[in-house]
Amino acid sequence: AQTVTQSQPEMSVQEAETVTLSCTYDTSESDYYLFWYKQPPSRQMILVIRQEAYKQQNATENRFSVNFQKAAKSFSLKISDSQLGDAAMYFCAYRSAKGNYQLIWGAGTKLIIKP
Amino acid sequence: DAMVIQNPRYQVTQFGKPVTLSCSQTLNHNVMYWYQQKSSQAPKLLFHYYDKDFNNEADTPDNFQSRRPNTSFCFLDIRSPGLGDAAMYLCATSRDTDQPQHFGDGTRLSIL
Lengths: 115, 112
Description:
The complex is a heterodimer of chains A (115) and B (112). With 115 residues, chain A is mostly beta strands. Chain A is 0% helix and 52% strand.
């Protein structure tokens, strides 16, 4: 069975600085998708970034980028120029590319932005 | 602009009193999901509908039921809520099961 591990329950960063959230996963599959979701307090869960396992190039969305290391089964999220609005729970999730399409979630990392 | 709408945002019910949470979507997506999320935890999938086909997760309690009368609406029924059912309930949709999920704002359920 696949598992997703986020080893940092909480992270804090100074506004305008860069922070990296870690995520590791375990799978025997070769084809899958990885996601980072953001959930601000009392607000909607939003997809931040998505990575297809067959792509070697790291996904990027504006200030958000990932470091995808397939062999190491690592999928970290880098947030550059942190803003107060980035404060949220961040969840890493895995989904198989075939068969069971259920999202496998990490436990989440709470990101605090210090002004 | 809201594409996945959950009502109400906050629901309070009494121990053992049936409660229904609703979700509607304007995306015309085939798949609708219900998740339970407890404080500071990841969402836990309860079940999902692919069109009219209902898919229950193996560990979802029998106390939880769902209805999808049409493409746009999906309901979560909790027949006899216990204190342990107090949580945020998230609805999500996707065009297909291999497509990204879009979430609503959630309904926070409290049990008195």
